[in-house]
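Page 42, continued from yesterday. The earlier attempt failed because a stray header line got pasted into the input along with the sequence. Redoing it now with the clean sequence only.
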Amino acid sequence: MAAPSTLPHSFPTPQISRSGVLTLYGFGVRVTMQAGHLQVEDGIGHERRRLRLPRVNHRLKRLVCIGDDGFIIFAALRWLSGVGDASFSMIDRLGKVRVVTGPASPSEARLRRAQALALDNGTAIKIARELISAKLTGQEVLVREKLKNTEAADSIAALRARLDDAADLDAIRGIESRAAAEYWNAWRDLPILFPRKDASRVPSHWLIFGTRHSPLTGGPRLSVNPANSLLNYTNAVAESECRLAACACGLDPGLGMLHTDTANRDSLALDLIETIRPAIESWILDWLMHEPLRRSDFIETSNGNCRLSSSLCSKLSETAPIWGKLVAPWAEYVAHSLRAGRTSRPNVGRGFSTPLTQAHRRKAKSASPPDMKMPAVGRICRGCGARTRVGRNCPKCGRELSREKLIELAKIGRIAALRPNARRKHSETQRRHEAAKRAWRSARQPGWPDEATYIREIQPRLASVTISKISSTLGLCESYAAEIRAGRHRPHPRHWLALAELVGVFYGFAGSVRGK
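This time it went through. Structure tokens are written below.
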């Protein structure tokens, strides 16, 4: 007998993101097993979280831990490996991958042997040339189309054309290094947007992208501003995906082509990530150019290192499946090239497995590769920093958000607000308002409107008046006018009469307040 359609069905755990990523943070992180279920406990203080995942319909693909205190048992790792392609990663907030475990294909001795011999027989040079060529192509497009720096884009294109003449790995590394200098120099003066209330509370070097080299380490690690910290952590998430991709193809993630002979490093994973770095940086760049960052999402340590909050790390960790899909064809390309000695990047042929892209299966079914959508970033109000949606009024300050306005503000940058000229104008405005208050206090005070009239009659009617109208009538900035309209700030009494006339409230002949 067929099962009735009214039978109850279990639904995916709501705490797991749509991309299948669950991020653990806090102290005393516990990943255990109970009656065949994966039990997870994390968080801090009163914000503790407890989840219990079944073996089916759990939707979990990545379990990412950013905490340093806790444990995971062997049975839990076995549970993750047995429920599909779920993996466990431990990443610190400095952008360092600590642990990565996930599904791996059986070790193939012939492939590993070919990987070890690639540096001696010339295969590594040809693979490295393809990987760096893909990276420089992406960098050229980003600089030309998004940063609008034609000179830097032409320099990168010229360096990419020299890859064909590179005779050894040192020459390829030299070309990549010179291209990186041109590339990051185009990023140097990129303004970083913060909400108006946060712009004066952040260090001045947070307001521009600056250099990729941290003064603490001389390299990208331990960055001192939010933009570089975003890149570091996202690169760490992508690096863990590259390691998983290499293992799934039967490769040794520690035997690299460009990155070689360094202990405690997944060199091949770092080789593979070079191909998708432009995609990562393009996503971060769109974020920085279109949306402001919030001060509460970043922490500055005693030595100046800028670290990310747990919530922001969780948001960035959700991008893991995207980077895994992007690096999948490159991991298969490396495996195919090593196995057959193929040196170009042709279409996948017969006899070569495609465990990541499933190219053979789609070809048999005449199916096209699935579309990949880049993850969307949360919308932040440029006035108060509240999370909202484009096209909707900010729930706190009532300002209408506009993508074009955000782009314009991002181009101008918040650096202008900290310059001496801007500070001088701000001081002059404050002095003008103080003089107006003194003149009002020295003059005869009007008996109407009083405070009760403002609260009862004037304030409710301000909701129907635009912010710009209030700003121009009182001679105040729009942000303060928005606070007045929302009722969070009561203007000085000298403005009450002008506001009464603006909303159509006047004092009647019989001594009563009337509205038009």
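Notes: The chain has three domains: 21-91, 109-346, 447-515.
Reminder to self: strip header lines before submitting.
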